[in-house]
């Protein structure tokens, strides 16, 4: 047996070892930073000031940064802005705009960024922020343009925020164009400085990770521009929450490639060489079917080859040759894709009919020498090669639902000739053969496309459209700033109330994200209990569209309406509950271990309602019966019910409805575990939040709530004020069939309801729900989805039923308890 002296000695020894280990790690971290000063910049004072959680933990800042902080993306020192002197030296008599490009490679989005810079610098100072390197880096450096190399910024949101703060401090920025979803890291920093932003989205969400990237862009951007309807529809399908977010659809302008430096001289040599190559391929009167772009899976190069095979099999290859121009075809070294393309050509017997040509600086020659262009991409927003080819009068063919190009082709009325069904190669091959055999139709199609393309894809029109959108963004941002200032000055924000996942490091950031959420329509939220901004915006005649609803509410003197209601707190006076008042409490006990929490909560109140317990089986009934021995009130019934309808089914259809028919006030609770979340603590925190509000933890909330129901005869229902702004989600369709029976003439878009279905109510308010006549067979069976059932609809309808009967609602809020 270990003696007390030995135990103390052993424990002390363990503590000394831990202390020694920490000291060694501290020394190691300092030495590591010192020896790697060329790669690691670290300021411990800045680190602790920037990250209050690190300061609060009292951990050594060097140790934390070396072993954890770098991996977490934390910033070790205040970032510096290279070329900051060039920003400061920009013409003070001109307004300044910013263009952000995710990199400077000679590819679609960076080429567009360069074109924007070259066009805008004629009227503005331009700050060109490059988030990655590339061949175009030097091309951005023009008179009147301050190039900021912000390489590596995309790896750290914290770094990007600080970096943008510094850039914005150097020069007032009228507007920022954020080109590509991949450039989104700068948006929060620009928003915090109230810089209007216009984000240009060209990508399909299918190949962007994380999937929430689009949500981030639409949340933080003042205005959003999609290059085609197809891309926008794809984003909404992936993230339905974006459906209500206003956006613009604006086809991008045709890029001027003369701005793009070439690897080799742009004299006639390359053009002559390429022209000779094409003429050799066109011997014996053959026509060229062109594909172009980086050789990768997304571009569908194997589909291009497959189309050639279908043409060959149909006897249409005698007059055609398929040519792909682009970088990346290397079957000797690229065993991920090129090797398989090479093998595909060999096995199909197409060696003499399909040719790959490397990327060229004289791509115009390829257009001039081609009869048609195939866009075989699986997903390709609005390919520059297609725009350029059409401007040369070359017909372009593609698959439906794979590119924004289909918008344009449909507008031109040529979709029958140019658009094949989704990845339907045989149909595409038929269209190729048809155009190849009808010169008149092909030339007429090319002329039609050219005339429309030169107009629709005009860079002048595109720039003018962006400037108009930018001016609207500036107006909206001024309104956001005014709303932010008004809300901040009103001091209505309750840090202890707002949902945990929405609390930022500073009050400034929390309030800024609040205003941004309502301006963008994405992830809307609340700042304090007792007010629903959406209901105010929808139903108050004083609300002016475009202003933040809360700011409008404050500015208009907090007008009364359904959007604002009384909040019951632990400080609300509670009258003595008269003897003989008929009060029932229904509890659905599915998890008997959680039932103890409810009994404990009841013990903190003088209120002793008659209990009606529903349980799923006899074993839980027996356990609940034993647990109820501690309850000082009356247990009226413990009833085994079918495992359907969750807690709502037993509430409406159990106990012969005695708890609703024979009582004046009724409570409804259930033992809640939320299995829809990966973290079980989410459900536990939610359950504790609900019980603290409805039964009480440090205060007798049940006594207070019932007292208010007794005193205020117009009060019909009381439930916790949920800090999350939850709406109909997928449940309105399930609610509509109940409207007439419940006496509801409409369903408002914005609603307030007991999230989690726990409440106290006047029994009379619930009786219209009994008239629905629901029986056990009417409820959906398990397993149930996370959302979108009649049960979720009924949960949302309950307060509306109370209001329809002439009653009001109240919510509860217990300070320092949220979820």
Keywords:
819 residues; alpha/beta; Rossmann fold; 5 domains; eight-stranded mixed sheet; seven-stranded parallel sheet; 34 helices; 21 strands; 12% strand; globular
Estimated structural class: alpha/beta
Overall pLDDT = 94
Q: According to CATH, what is the class of the largest domain? A: Alpha Beta
Total number of domains: 5
Percent in helix:
40-55%
**How far apart are the termini?**
47 Å
> Which of globular, elongated, flat, extended, rod-shaped describes the shape?
globular
Approximately what portion of the residues adopt beta-strand conformation?
5-15%
CATH topology of the largest domain: Spore Coat Polysaccharide Biosynthesis Protein SpsA, Chain A
- How are the strands of the largest sheet arranged? 14-21-19-20-18-15-16-17
| CATH architectural group of the largest domain | Alpha-Beta Complex
Output the radius of gyration: 33 Å
């Amino acid at each position: 047996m270990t003696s007390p002296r030995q135990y103390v000695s052993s424990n002390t020894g363990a503590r000394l070892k831990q202390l020694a280990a920490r000291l060694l790690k501290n020394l190691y971290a300092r030495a590591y930073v010192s020896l790697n000063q060329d790669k690691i910049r670290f300021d411990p004072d800045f680190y602790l000031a920037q990250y209050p959680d690190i300061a609060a933990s009292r951990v050594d800042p060097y140790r934390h940064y070396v072993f954890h902080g770098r991996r977490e993306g934390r910033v070790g020192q205040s970032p510096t802005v290279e070329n900051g002197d060039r920003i400061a030296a920009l013409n003070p008599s001109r307004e300044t705009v910013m263009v952000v490009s995710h990199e400077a490679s000679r590819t679609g989005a960076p080429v567009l960024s360069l074109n924007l810079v070259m066009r805008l610098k004629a009227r503005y100072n331009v700050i060109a922020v490059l988030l990655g390197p590339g061949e175009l880096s030097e091309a951005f450096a023009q008179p009147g343009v301050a190039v900021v190399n912000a390489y590596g910024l995309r790896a750290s949101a914290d770094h990007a925020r600080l970096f943008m703060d510094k850039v914005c401090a150097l020069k007032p920025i009228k507007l920022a164009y954020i080109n590509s979803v991949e450039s989104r890291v700068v948006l929060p920093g620009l928003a915090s400085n109230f810089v209007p932003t216009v984000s240009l989205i060209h990508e399909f969400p299918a190949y962007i990770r994380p999937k929430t990237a689009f949500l981030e862009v639409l949340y933080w951007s003042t205005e959003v521009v999609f290059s085609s309807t197809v891309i926008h529809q794809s984003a909404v399908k992936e993230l339905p929450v974006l459906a209500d977010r206003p956006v613009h659809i604006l086809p991008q302008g045709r890029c001027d490639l003369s701005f793009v430096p070439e690897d080799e001289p742009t004299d006639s040599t390359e053009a002559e060489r390429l022209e000779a190559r094409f003429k050799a391929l066109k011997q014996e009167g053959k026509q060229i079917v062109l594909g172009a772009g980086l050789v990768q899976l997304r571009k569908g190069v194997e589909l291009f080859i497959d189309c050639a095979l279908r043409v060959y099999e149909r006897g249409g290859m005698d007059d055609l040759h398929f040519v792909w121009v682009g970088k990346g075809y290397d079957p000797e070294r690229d065993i991920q894709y090129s090797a398989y393309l090479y093998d595909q050509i060999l096995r199909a017997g197409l060696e003499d009919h399909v040719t790959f040509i490397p990327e060229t600086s004289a791509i115009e020659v390829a257009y001039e020498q081609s009869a048609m262009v195939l866009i075989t991409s699986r997903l390709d927003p609005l390919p520059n090669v297609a725009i350029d080819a059409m401007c040369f009068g070359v017909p372009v063919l593609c698959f439906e639902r794979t590119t924004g190009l289909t918008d344009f082709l449909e507008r031109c009325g040529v979709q029958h000739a140019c658009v094949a069904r989704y990845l339907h190669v045989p149909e595409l091959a038929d269209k190729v053969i048809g155009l190849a055999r009808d010169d008149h139709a092909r030339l007429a199609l090319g002329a039609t496309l050219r005339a429309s393309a030169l107009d629709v894809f005009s860079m002048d029109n595109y720039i003018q459209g962006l400037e108009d959108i930018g001016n609207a963004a500036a107006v909206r941002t001024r309104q956001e700033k005014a709303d932010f200032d008004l809300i901040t000055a009103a001091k209505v924000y309750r840090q202890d109330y707002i949902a945990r996942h929405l609390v930022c490091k500073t009050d400034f950031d929390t309030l800024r994200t609040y205003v941004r959420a309502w301006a963008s329509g994405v992830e809307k939220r609340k700042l304090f209990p007792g007010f629903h901004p959406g209901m105010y915006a929808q139903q108050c005649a004083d609300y002016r569209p475009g202003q933040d609803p809360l700011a409008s509410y404050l500015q208009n003197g907090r007008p009364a309406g359904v959007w604002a209601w009384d909040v019951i707190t632990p400080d609300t006076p509670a009258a003595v509950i008269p003897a003989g008042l008929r009060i029932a409490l229904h509890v659905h006990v599915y998890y008997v271990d959680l039932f103890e929490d409810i009994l404990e909560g009841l013990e903190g109140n003088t209120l002793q309602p008659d209990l009606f317990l529903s349980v799923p089986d006899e074993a839980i009934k027996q356990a609940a019966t034993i647990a109820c021995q501690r309850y000082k009130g009356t247990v009226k019934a413990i009833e085994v019910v079918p495992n359907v309808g969750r807690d709502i089914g037993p509430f409406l259809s159990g106990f012969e409805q005695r708890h609703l028919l024979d009582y004046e006030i009724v409570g409804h609770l259930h033992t809640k575990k939320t299995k829809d979340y990966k973290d079980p603590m989410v459900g536990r925190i939610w359950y504790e939040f609900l019980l603290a509000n409805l039964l009480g933890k440090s205060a007798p909330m049940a006594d207070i709530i019932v007292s208010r129901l007794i005193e205020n005869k117009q009060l019909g229902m009381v439930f916790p004020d949920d800090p999350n702004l939850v709406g109909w989600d997928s449940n309105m369709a399930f609610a509509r069939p109940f409207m007439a029976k419940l006496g509801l003439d409409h369903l408002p878009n914005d609603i307030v309801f007991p999230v989690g279905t726990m409440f106290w109510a006047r029994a009379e308010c619930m009786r219209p729900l009994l008239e629905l006549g629901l029986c056990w067979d009417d409820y959906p069976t398990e397993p149930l989805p996370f959302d979108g059932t009649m049960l979720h609809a009924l949960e949302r309808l309950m307060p509306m039923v109370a209001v329809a009967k002439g009653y009001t609602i109240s919510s509860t809020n217990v300070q320092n308890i949220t979820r």
